[in-house]
Amino acid sequence: MPLLAGWVEGIGIPQDAQNRVFEAFYRGDNVGQVQGTGLGLAVAKSCVGLQGGRLTVQTKAAGGTCITAVLPRVE
Question: What sign results for the dihedral spanned by CA atoms 20, 22, 27, 31?
Fold first, then answer.
């Protein structure tokens, strides 16, 4: 399966919010003045899912998040 991963250096995602990051319009309590709509990961997960793949998130409490997309191989 093809794999695409991206590491973002940022504020990180608190443990209690990690299961909600793919909800449309969800924004964590720790975002402060960081702008956004809360749609990016919801749209990305939907697009990857429509292709039969999956999107996962791994984050460090101190900051930084890795988003990984795994897509099925096309024959």
Answer: positive
